[in-house]
Amino acid sequence: MIIEKILGNLHELPDPERYAGLHKEKVVLPSAQLVKRIQRVTTDHGKELGIRLPAGSGDLRDGDILAVGDANMIVVSVLPSDVLVIAARSIYEMGIVAHSLGNRHLQAQFFDASSEYGAEVMVCQYDHTVEDYLKHVGVPYERQERVMPVPFRHAEHTH
Question: CB of 142 within 8 A of CB of 122?
Answer without folding.
Answer: no
